[in-house]
Amino acid sequence: MSKRIVHYINQFFAGIGGEEKADHKPEKRDGVVGPGMGLQKELGDAAQIVGTVICGDSYFNENLESCSATVLDMIKSYNPDIVVVGPGFNAGRYGMACGTVAKLVDENLGLPVVGGLYEENPGLEIYKRYGFFVHTANNAGGMRTAVPDMAKIVKKLAAGEEVTEGYVQKGLRVNYFAKDRGSKRAVDMLLKKIGGQEFETEYPMPAFDRVLPQPAVKDITKARIALVSSGGPVPKGNPDHIESSSASKYGKYSLKDITDFTAENGETAHGGYDPVYANLDLDRVLPVDVIKEMVAAGEIGSLHDYWYSTVGNGTAVSNAKKFANAIAQDLKADNVDCVILTST
Amino acid sequence: MRLEVGNIFIKDVQFGAATEVKSGVLYVNKDELAKIAGSDDRIKSVEVFLARPGESVRIIPVKDVVEPRVKVEGPGGVFPGFMTGVDQVGSGKTHVLKGAAVVTTGKIVGFQEGIIDMSGTGAEYTPFSATQNVVVKVEPIDSLKQHEHEVVVRLAGFRAANYLGQAGKDVKPDEVQAYETKPLLEQVAEFPKLPKVVYVYMLQTQGLLHNTYYYGVNVSEIVPTFMYPTEVMDGAIVSGNCVSACDKNPTYVHENSPVIADLYAQHGKTINFLGCVITNENVTLMDKERSSSQTAKLVHFLGADAAIISEEGFGNPDADLVMNCNKIENLGIKTVLITDEYAGQDGVSQSLADSTPLGNACVTAGNANQVVTLPKMDTVIGYPEVANVIAGGWNGSLKADGSIVTEIQVITGATNELGFHTLTAKTV
User: Which chain A residues touch B270 with a CB distance below 8 Å?
Assistant: First the structure.
């Protein structure tokens, strides 16, 4: 029996309309719609697209929670073996929707997902781990290559074969038992390395972004200082709702009216350590009390008017870089000489 | 230094009236073994069990695994510094009860120790599901402090192994293998055209319950030194640690040190194996800098063209691994590293706590955070409830039906970084 496929597409590719119809609510239709026709042709008898789920891009992204539940139910109703999303090319909101559907299916149904996105589509970086995404061109002109590329993977999955190439790596480390034990593999690799032959490392080491410290400040009594922290120090109530883990944002808060943190005016948003002592006295994470005393005593030049805070706990390096760039621009504009950067 | 290792293949283990090897079967006098293993006034009781491959048996918590060996000819004895004085070992003749192992268990020392399952999913992940295991359950006297408890159990394991090893003293081995590394200048002259290889053997020494010993000396106290590869075959290095049991080296693995075995397999053919530099993994930056500098100096001094560097443990020791790699590569010596990974249960995170672009040849023993379900076993030797507290488990790991849901981190030897097992990882 051929495998059952459900295809997720947006309102544009379903032929419902463009931006003016981006608020289209989720619907399901039996059989193929839009690009599903081409896909079915490529698949032949290997697999059958039994249903198509359609949703407007704006509607999906603006009603994430309710829409996720509805779309998942619609997909489930067809009892699929494999789910296909897109291709979404470089459409930002469509890419995010395709990625979200991949995540929903992977986490809730445990089924394989196949999709196609342009390499710079933000949905790809965020959601690639949840499915087999092929690289596509940046616009629908690339449909002719995207569909066969996606079909190739669907066919492999339908045949129960392992998919090892033709998709963007998910970035997941997966265990398996090798033929030889580790020591033998190490000796074999060493022989190749000695002989100048090609060898393949089993773990490509991550490239850490190492930052050389700046030269020491010459005269601290004239320097302008700023306070930045990844320990999550925020005004009481966490007004920007910075996440306790995997932060998606940072906050910028005025130091004007604070000379000392207390249990009434500050807390930490960080979920990765025991918050009790930080919440009693946030100076333990961000030393505002001491800095203010030093400014008053003329021991340091001056203080930047704001502090910047995010949560380092589980936060992706890509997000941290983004925050740092924005914060650094701010500090430069205010002629800050040095920063006290606290973590936890 | 030349050592002949005579392997006596053990196909089965049974209790018997006398401890002896007959037709490949190791017979164990249970009471005598218990008495000898328990001859320490800090021990309250010793019980002995057998666990064979394929049986529905779980051993938890596992402290150490030791291979029974006996010195037949030549100076010294097995486990110098603990059992037999401190004569130089690694030459002469040694007999091995190949296929047999002593496994120590008992009340948990801390949050450490591992699991060995003799069948089911867990058995695939531990090399010690394939050995005929004599399990020695040691209970210390009340009020014994943790560090002393560890010493007591460690020594009981060595006494048990040496007692069993004696049974092989007069048995004709099924196979004899000779290993030889000569003094440096002679060794270099013997195979002048082959690339010269040194093994950098990193040993876990992060403090209490995290130590390793060389001739009885805590390796945290040594500066890196040269070791003839055959020394380990007489038990010169022994384990004093098993926290996160997947990537700590039981004494058995040192006795059968796999990189040494596989380098010897190429010795005189494709490489000239000059010997080992043993080094530690202490916690302070100054210690790390000193040990890695001394290690690189020694490797260079020995004239190595290339080196294999194996790690023990993870996290903090990743820094030692990277320092050793950088300093040795910067001397123009090619390296291959052996490590394991902590990429998270979902496999998404970066696997090491430190990194270097010079570490471009890396063997991985797998992701220790992988979650597995270990099925219920009919017999549990030890204390199943510690599954909830040992590193890699969590409160609730032990299910009501006796199964255990846990990271493979708890499984003894699963991601061994001397390369003793076949588990590895890839990016998908």
Answer: 191
- DSSP-derived pairing of the beta strands A302-309 and A251-254: antiparallel
> CA angle, corner B320, sides to B318 and B321, nearest 5?
65
How close is the nearest chain A Cα to the Cα of B272, in Å? 11
pLDDT in tens, A136-190: 999 999 999 999 999 999 999 999 999 999 999 999 999 999 999 999 999 999 9
**Amino acid at position A110, single letter:** G
**CB spacing of A173 vs B367 below 8 angstroms:** yes
Enumerate the residues of chain A whose CB falls inside 8 A of the CB of residue B354. 208
Q: What is the per-residue pLDDT across A186-235, written as a single tens digit (0 to 9) for each?
A: 999 999 999 999 999 999 998 776 788 889 999 999 999 999 999 999 99
* List of residues 6+ apart from A149 with CB closer than 8 A: A116, A134, A135, A136, A166
Residue B3 CB-half CA count within 13 A: 28
Edge to edge, the sheet with strand B225-227 lists B225-227, B272-281, B196-204, B306-310, B334-341, B362-367
Domains plus CATH for chain A?
A: 3-158 (3.40.50.2300), 220-342 (no CATH)
Catalytic residue among B242, B246, B276, B325: B242
A175 and B408: CB-CB below 8 Å?
A: yes
Asked if residue B60 lies in contact with residue B383, where contact means CB atoms within 8 angstroms, the answer is yes
A316 touches chain B (CB under 8 A): no
Handedness of CA A27, A28, A33, A38 (dihedral sign): positive
Whole-prediction pTM? 0.83
Residues of B in contact with A165 (CB under 8 A): none
- Asked if B362 and A202 come within 8 Å (Cβ–Cβ), the reply is yes
Give the model confidence (pLDDT) of A97-139 as tens digits. 999 999 999 999 999 999 999 998 989 999 999 999 999 999 9
Q: Is A213 on the interface with B (CB under 8 A)?
A: no
Active site residue B242: yes
